[in-house]
Specification:
Keywords: ATP-binding, DNA-binding, Nucleotide-binding, Transcription, Transcription regulation
CATH superfamily of the largest domain: GAF domain
CATH topology of the largest domain: Beta-Lactamase
Number of domains: 4
Pfam families: AAA_lid_14, GAF, HTH_8, PAS_9, Sigma54_activat
Protein name: Sigma-54-dependent Fis family transcriptional regulator
Number of helices: 27
Strand order of the largest sheet: 2-1-5-4-3
Strand content: 15-25%
Low-confidence stretches: 592-602
Shape: elongated
Length: about 650
């Protein structure tokens, strides 16, 4: 090692004459060159930059974790050199002294050169020194007396090592400064060892933080599951549950953790799940919860959890049957889409029916919709459900006349595995189970066989069903809306319909009138249908002649609203012009005009009603009504005068 007198001479040669002797260590030569480039005054006798107390306090808060870990290790390092004139100093990555530990006399000596907490000892501030240079080269370094660039430091020998976080980024530096005669080769090693201990503690703290974060993420993730969840080890001990499971079984996590799963559930399937290497998929069971009378039907699934190809546990999921069915209903379209707003018409007849239906919607009573085919019984059924307190539950419609008698039972009540040849494995729920909490619409109830009427009556009485081929009783909570185009009282007299079932269904009867009994609604219905249809087929600007509506008003409409809609669709699709007249209508409509008109009290009355309807459609605007009819406003006024309308 070169003695200090030689180093001092080399320093003077560089400072006064610009000559850099190659005998000086390379790392020091490079640091001196940088110091000169920074414009550092080599004759500086004390620190030149220092933070205010507020700035220092803010820095310490920012570096709280580093300080917390480093301080005990710094004190341990100081214990080896206590009383020998050494300082142990922790700096940040900029060379700011954050904490100094040392003998009282040494601390006073350091204070004389502003080598104190808050001082900045970077190369830019103080030239070559163990703190500033160690940070730049990112390596442990020992700087002896005159190797320091400024005279303020040349009475010290300093040993320093940078501190890195778990990503290898420099976040601080540990320095030990003292008299050169008491420094030995192991001094730097002691600093390096202490820094290694600090970095190790930082890594442990980071791992702990990550584990805590991963635990929080796991808990947050599992609690977002829509299914209940249990994780068990190979012995069946419960390691983790989620909030959904707690809601399903009515138990908290602290009541479950550490228990064997068989202690929580008495179902034998859980012994199979724990002991078997195979997985279970959507097995339907009724949970038998220990110490609880709660009964919950769920679908249970299990999946192995592996670590390095070795199974270490299992994940069990629980789906509540009623929630599964809600999802099925949602995606299969088992929801009411129509409302009373979709019931078009302003006639007193249809207004009265809407009032009756809206009143029925406010109850849970069974409703019987009576009306000819095409009058809109399905529309009213959906509107009643949509207006009821069951609106958020399923609406399931089944056509009793469109399903073979042999299959209607399995459709309504479901069946168990193996109930009949071709039965789906595992069985399947019926419409009553799928409609749980909602409404089941039995269309064409008059077509139901007497055998099925008996089963339906039992459901209405007991509010329970048994799947075909099964023995388990399943409670059901559904509202019945039935519909028929038959006179059920006559069918009862003929022996085709059970009287007791009729009275069960006929709690709130609602008669939906045929279209011929509310002719004044025809123009409004036709206009709405044509607007929707013309936009759908790409003919949005169709004009309609008044005579077109007159022809519609004169027809008897045996197929009611459905027939009107179908004929208008045919006219719009086949039409080639922009103006619709009666000639566009099919022969069965225009061919019947004369017969209908003869049955009416007077032809002029039809024209009068057509004029009034046109004005109503135009919301009382006579100019708009005239344009709508394709006539001059003066002509409209003359026609109104003719019929005595002012």
């Amino acid at each position: 090692m070169i003695d200090n007198d030689s180093i001092r001479k080399f320093w003077e040669d560089f400072v006064y004459r610009g000559h850099l002797n190659k005998s000086v260590k390379k790392v020091i030569r490079e640091a001196w060159l940088r110091s000169k480039q920074y414009g550092v005054n080599p004759h500086t006798q004390s620190g030149t930059r220092i933070l205010s107390l507020a700035e220092l306090e803010e820095l310490r808060k920012k570096k709280e974790k580093l300080l917390h870990i480093s301080l005990p290790l710094m004190e341990n390092l100081y214990s080896f050199v206590k009383g020998s004139g050494f300082l142990v100093i922790l700096c940040d990555e900029r060379g700011v002294l954050m904490k100094s530990i040392g003998d009282e006399e040494t601390l006073l000596e350091a204070e004389n050169i502003q080598f104190v907490e808050g001082a900045i000892w970077s190369e830019e501030a103080m030239g070559a020194n163990a703190i500033g240079t160690g940070l730049i080269i990112d390596q442990p370094i020992q700087v002896w007396e005159s190797e320091h660039y400024t005279e303020a430091c040349q009475s010290w020998t300093c040993s320093a090592a940078p501190i890195h976080d778990s990503n290898g980024k420099v976040i601080g530096l540990l320095n030990m400064s003292g008299p050169h005669e008491k420094v030995h080769p192991h001094t730097l090693g002691m600093v390096v060892s202490t820094v290694a201990a600090i970095e190790k503690q930082l890594q442990i703290m980071e791992k702990t933080r990550r584990h805590a974060m991963m635990k929080s993420l796991l808990e947050a993730t599992t609690d977002t599951f829509s299914e209940g969840m249990i994780i068990v080890d190979m012995a069946g001990n419960i390691l983790k549950t989620n909030e959904v499971l707690h809601q399903i079984i009515g138990k908290k996590e602290e009541e479950l953790l550490g228990l064997e799963i068989q202690e929580v559930f008495k179902n034998k399937i859980f012994q199979e799940i724990v002991s078997s290497n195979t997985n279970v998929a959507d097995r339907e069971i009724k949970l038998n919860i220990a110490g609880s009378i709660r009964q919950v039907r769920v679908l249970v699934s299990s999946k192995g959890i592996f670590q390095q190809k070795r199974r270490i546990g299992k994940l069990l999921t629980f789906k509540e049957i009623h929630k599964v069915r809600q999802m099925i209903n949602k995606f299969s379209g088992n929801q009411a889409k129509m409302t009373f707003h979709d019931v078009i018409g302003a006639s007193s007849t249809i207004r009265k029916v809407k009032e009756e239906a809206m009143a029925a919607a406010g109850t849970d009573s069974n409703v019987l919709l009576i009306g000819e085919s095409g009058t809109g019984k399905d529309l009213f059924a959906q509107a009643i459900h949509h207006e009821s307190n069951r609106r958020h539950k399923p609406f399931i419609a089944i056509n009793c006349g469109g399903i073979p008698r042999d299959l209607l039972g399995s459709e309504l009540f479901g069946y168990e595995d193996g109930a009949f040849t071709g039965a789906r494995r595992g069985g399947t729920p019926g419409k009553f189970e799928l409609a749980e909490g909602g409404t089941i619409f039995l269309d064409e109830i008059g077509e139901m066989s007497l055998e099925m009427q008996v089963l339906l009556l039992r459901v209405l009485q007991d509010k329970k069903i048994v799947r075909i081929g099964g023995y388990k009783v399943v409670p059901v909570n559904v509202r019945i809306i039935a519909a028929t185009n038959k006179n059920l009282r006559e069918e009862v007299k003929k022996g085709n319909f059970r009287e007791d079932l009729f009275f069960r269904l006929n709690v709130i009867p609602i008669h939906i009138p045929p279209l011929r009994e509310r002719r004044e609604d025809i123009p409004r219905l036709a206009e709405q249908f044509m607007k929707n249809l013309s936009e759908r087929v790409g003919k949005p600007h169709l004009q309609v002649a008044p005579s077109f509506y007159e022809a519609l008003l004169k027809y008897d409409w045996p197929g009611n609203v459905r027939e009107l809609q179908n004929i208008l669709e045919r006219v719009i699709v086949k039409g080639t012009g922009r103006l619709l007249g009666p000639e566009e209508l099919p022969a069965e409509v225009v061919g019947d005009i004369s017969a209908v008109s003869q049955s009416l009290p007077m032809k002029d009355e039809i024209q009068k009603q057509a004029l009034l309807q046109s004005i109503a459609i135009c919301e009382g605007n006579y100019s708009k009504a005239a344009r709508y009819l394709g006539i001059a406003r003066s002509t409209l006024y003359r026609k109104l005068e003719k019929y005595g309308i002012k």
